[in-house]
Specification:
7-stranded mixed sheet; Metallo-B-lactamas; UPF0173_UPF0282_UlaG_hydrolase; globular; about 230 residues; RibonucZ/Hydroxyglut_hydro; 6 helices
Length: about 230
């Protein structure tokens, strides 16, 4: 499995079986380093509907003639916008074209603004993606919650992408505890430094992970990790 970080919470995941992208906030993020039209994937996976995660999902799905996987209300929103979709919900799993997706709980919110109105887009979630015989847990936007222990007990997680920005999600202290509960061998910090309110030191967080016996990778946009 090869993971390439494109800033904020966007991860491109590649294996011989398939290529997928998670939370492709690219054109709206000047630090992503890539344009959505340059993304080639077999599926788009979304953790929730906030604009910094939904991002360019519909455009990428239409360009690649591939489905968006999302919790039911968000999937319907994407379908109405012209994308192929796979409707899912928390706790459900689905095997598709060489990979498996399962949605886990996340403690956050999920909506998008259109004009003067906010549209509710279902429950936020985390994603367990199994591809190429390995499993990535992308926590999405979330607070620390006790069932992360259960997620770690029931799944052999090779790498976890955990938010560390604080204010809107877990901060570094809670993310450090989450990494231990998840029993992840490797951790990629995400959802930080995109804007001033969530500035954090990813390298320092990874140094703290190392003290716990966990390998941390503070990837910059465009950098990759192979596991």
């Amino acid at each position: 499995m090869k993971l390439t970080y494109y800033g904020h919470s966007a991860l491109l995941v590649e294996a011989p079986e398939a290529r997928v992208i998670i939370d492709p906030f690219l054109s709206g993020n000047p630090g992503s380093g890539i344009a959505p039209e340059n993304i080639r994937v077999d599926a788009v996976l979304l953790t929730h509907g906030h604009s910094d995660h939904l991002g360019d999902a519909v455009a990428i799905a239409r360009n690649n003639d591939c489905p968006i996987f999302a919790v039911y209300e968000l999937a319907e929103y994407c379908r109405i916008k012209g994308a192929k979709v796979k409707h899912m919900n928390i706790g459900g799993g689905l095997a598709y074209s060489g990979f498996t997706v399962k949605y886990t709980p996340a403690l956050h919110s999920s909506s998008i603004q259109e004009g003067d109105y906010w549209i509710y887009l279902g429950q936020p979630g985390g994603i367990l993606l199994t591809l190429g015989g390995q499993t990535l847990y992308h926590a999405g936007d979330t607070a620390l919650f006790g069932d992360m222990r259960l997620i770690g007990e029931r799944n052999a997680i090779d790498v976890a992408a955990l938010p560390i920005g604080d204010v809107l999600t877990m901060g570094p202290d809670d993310a450090l505890l989450a990494a231990n509960w998840l029993r992840a061998a490797k951790v990629i910090p995400v959802h930080y430094n995109t804007f001033p309110a969530i500035e954090q030191d990813g390298a320092e967080f990874c140094d703290r992970l190392k003290q716990e016996g966990i390998d941390g990778f503070p990837l910059k946009a465009g950098e990759s990790l192979e596991i």
